[in-house]
Amino acid sequence: MSDLSIGGGVRLPEPSRGDRATQVGSTHHFTGGIVHNFGPGGTGPGGNGPGTRMGIESNLEGNANLMLAARSEVQDLVEQVRFDWFDEDGEVHKHYIDLVATERDGTVVGYAVRPLARVKDAYLAQLARVKEQAIEQGVLDDFRLFTDRDVCQVELFNAKLFHSVRRPDCFGDPVAKDVVDKMTGVVTIGSLVEQTRLDGMGFRALVRLIRSGHLEMVGYERIDHSSLVFKAKEVSA
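Given the sequence above, the corresponding structure tokens read:
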């Protein structure tokens, strides 16, 4: 682990664990970076660590990154993972898998992220070959194509919300946990916010409890004050 810190004792995010450095600027497409609490810099979603940086090279890749990171079954996520594959003539080629997610049951799934308009037959044939060899070698358990058709706006909205409130709040979180611990039945998030008397701070703390699985949504919808929730497990669990 690197020792990147600022004078006040605040640690900077750990470097990317990808096998290829992503572009930091381009005149042709979106580039950027995102920090998750996966890897050596954190203890999983909601952790207190400084996080680990991940590079992204398209808006679609950023959306896929956020959506996968927010899924409860995903416990680790790495970008740009190198895999060497060979073609029908035996020539070896490098392929960088855009995202590799490790799920809680140990399943490892790779994702090739590309707009559907740019998915051609030759590309699909190459992915099929990479998938076959990666699974055969035990590098992946599955390899999937992620396109713009896989972006559910509800899931993306909630993923962005989860990411924006991921940092724990030493004041708001205990209050929200106490309110949820005493709740019964199905209630709106707004009513729980009122019980916390913390307005936005209370809402953010309750969203973290949805993210951690302590609260569960009744319907599949964007999370807001009118959303109905119930206690899925004890807060102390």
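The CA atoms of residues 131 and 143 lie 6 Å apart. Try to locate this feature in the token string yourself.
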